[in-house]
Amino acid sequence: xxxxxxxxxxxxxxxxxxxxxxxxxxxxxxxxxxxxxxxxxxxxxxxxxxxxxxxxxxxxxxxxxxxxxxxxxxxxxxxxxxxxxxxxxxxxxxxxxxxxxxxxxxxxxxxxxxxxxxxxxxxxxxxxxxxxxxxxxxxxxxxxxxxxxxxxxxxxxxxxxxxxxxxxxxxxxxxxxxxxxxxxxxxxx
Length: 189
Prior knowledge:
Blueprint: E1 2-5, E2 12-13, E3 19-22, E4 25-28, E5 31-33, E6 38-42, E7 46-49, E8 53-55, E9 60-63, E10 68-71, E11 76-77, E12 82-85, E13 88-91, E14 96-97, E15 102-104, E16 106-108, E17 121-123, E18 126-128, E19 133-134, E20 139-140, E21 145-146, E22 151-152, E23 157-158, E24 167-168
Parallel strand pairs: 4-7, 5-8, 6-9, 7-10, 8-11, 9-12, 10-13, 12-15, 13-18, 14-19, 15-20, 18-21, 19-22, 20-23, 22-24
Antiparallel strand pairs: 1-6, 2-5, 3-4, 16-17
């Protein structure tokens, strides 16, 4: 059994305070949910959103079987974000996610023989504490805790815990090499 929650007629803007529950998805008003955003649960998965959460265009929040996703008050889920939990993902209060951020609490098992999609997952919870800014295109992997007040720069891959009030960025080098070093059969490169 799957639960989908998505609005097809524009933006949901609630201006009164109350609690709404749609089975495994619960949220408190006011809530800003773009029409193209999707909240999705499988079986006993749960998604909980507190006050003043904003879910922008193209965002997808998925709680797998028995998984739990909690989104704190005044948190902004950015454009085209993907948040997928197989166990637990917690976003604190006042968290800002830039566009195209991906957060996963699992990895695929790939070191066994068999059909890749049937091998399962390794899981570990993800927690992003209060007042954290995640830049555009950041990927946050399983088992990570990001401390309060931290900033994660655009394009960073986060695969370990980040202490409070940290600035994190990947040191990137632009490497340019020739793809073709010699002609093959006289074909111009």
